[in-house]
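pasting for the record
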Amino acid sequence: MATTIAELTKFLDAAGLNYDAHEEHGAIAVGFRFEPDENTYRDEDGDPHVQIIVRIVADGEFVVVFAPRAWNVADCDHVAAVCEAVARIQARLKRVRYDLQDDDMLQPNIEIPLETSPMCAEQLQRAIAGVFLAIRSYDLVIRHAMETGEVDLDRAAAADDDDDDRPPEVADTGALSDLADRAGGLDALEKLLGGGDDLPSGH
C-alpha cells in the first residue's frame, strides 16, 4: 500500500490543519472559509465556505482531492458555456480538472497516481491548495458563464497561479459529518464518495 489515512493525517497535523478523518470511507475532510467581502464563492447554504475531500482509492495507490458539489448547474441554461469556461481554466492550471457529475454538480479535483511510491507532504499540500485555488480564483468566471452564457476569463481573481501553495484559512466547521448531513446522511455520503477501489464518476 502506497499510502494510508494515518500517514496523510500526519501531514495535515504537521501543517496545522483541522480535519475530520473517516477510516471506513478512506476519506478526510478539510473545511476552509473565505472572507465574505473578498470572494464571491458560496456553498449550497450560502456560506463563504468550501469542503475539500481527500480520498484514498485502489488500496492506497491513488489519491483524489476534490471539492464535492462545488457548483450546481441543474437549473442552468448555459451549461455549454460553463463547460467551455472550465475547459479554458484547465488549460491555465497544471493539475486541476473540473468534472460535471450525473447529478449536475460541477466539482474541481486533482488525481494523484502513487502506484507503489509513498505520498509526500508537499504532494498533499499542493493538491489541497490547487483545488482551493480552482474555486477561489475562478468562481466568478464560472458563475458568470452560468448566468450569462459568456466565457470571460478576465473575471478570474487576481492573477493567482496554481504554484501558489500558501495554505488557505481553515474553517472551524470542516467535519465530514457536516458534509454527511448536507449530502443527506451517511448513505448519501457513501454514494458521494463512491464504493470499492475503482474510481467511479464523482470519485
